[in-house]
Request: fold
Amino acid sequence: RLARRPNQYITTDQLLRDVWDGGLRSPDTIRSAVRHLRERLCDAGMQELAAAIQGHGGRYGLILNHDG
Reply:
């Protein structure tokens, strides 16, 4: 979901709707999924991509462009 809109942050509510079909989940679900994804990317030798998945203020994004 994050890769569809790189360099944009997506709210946790939107991620819960889009990825988990709005099911009964908490924001902890997203934190856990992001942590797991980062770990798997690092294990696969993709540390830079893992670092590009950023969270801030209840939003997450795949931030590839650091120019602003």
Notes: The mean pLDDT is 89. The longest strand covers residues 53-56. The helical segments are 12-19, 27-43, 47-52.
